[in-house]
């Protein structure tokens, strides 16, 4: 099956700053991909290129079908009512499912005559996601849609998106700084760091392919590809990729998603990308 999103040798430069350098990745159709990375990693830039808001300085980006985007800040026109936003969406989109959007907003208790500026942050996020889904995209790109939402509203927004993913082959690219929000939702992981791609792959395969090791100071890591290590007193903890080290003093377990992400973010020189081998690769 062809990928929903394919990025090859992507570089994006803002004047003298390269926001993204030599990124190549592909996300299979029907996946919910988490895009994580520290501030300034290039997440928004990648999303803008994916939806055609920004042109690559180098390389190519290919989306199979139509993309919809929910921006990080102010995704809606504040002076519009909800009904006006829906009418605007209908005019701007060739394939538009206004009926489903109206049903969803009614289910959420959001009145059509209410001005966007009078909605809570959670309601605004719900309206923005509903409008994006009404355009029947093949790829839905969401830049931190859960920021500033309370836990209940976060759960509701995720539930709406996941229902749509289950209904049809929608692919989602979702950025967030809160990895725990992504744990139950995402089955693909992309980690960007300082404009470079560190990780892109199936979440289960990545978790199966890594171990968290704990052992005494002085235990040998020979035979393992170390992503990163930390020390607490005389205890050493390491994230390794692939085979375990030979030294029997290590205790190994499968990492959680957050441990995996943090392990890579703390070691910007490490990467887990298809086709790369060697220490830290
Ligand atoms: N319009 C712009 N002009 C110049 N530099 C920019 C512009 N937009 C982004 N950058 C720079 O590009 C880099 C990547 O920014 P980007 O917004 O893509 O990161 P991000 O991962 O989305 O960050 P955050 O998590 O803070 O939202 C940063 O160094 C940023 O300062």
UniProtKB/TrEMBL annotation:
UniProt GO molecular function: ATP binding; ATP hydrolysis activity
Organism of this sequence: Nonomuraea thailandensis
Keywords: ATP-binding, Nucleotide-binding, Transport
PANTHER family: ABC TRANSPORTER ATP-BINDING PROTEIN ALBC-RELATED
Residues annotated as domain ABC transporter: 5-219
Protein name as catalogued: ABC-2 type transport system ATP-binding protein
Keyword ATP-binding in annotation: yes
Top-rank taxon: Bacteria
InterPro entries in UniProt: AAA+_ATPase, ABC_transporter-like_ATP-bd, ABC_Transporter_VariousFunc, P-loop_NTPase
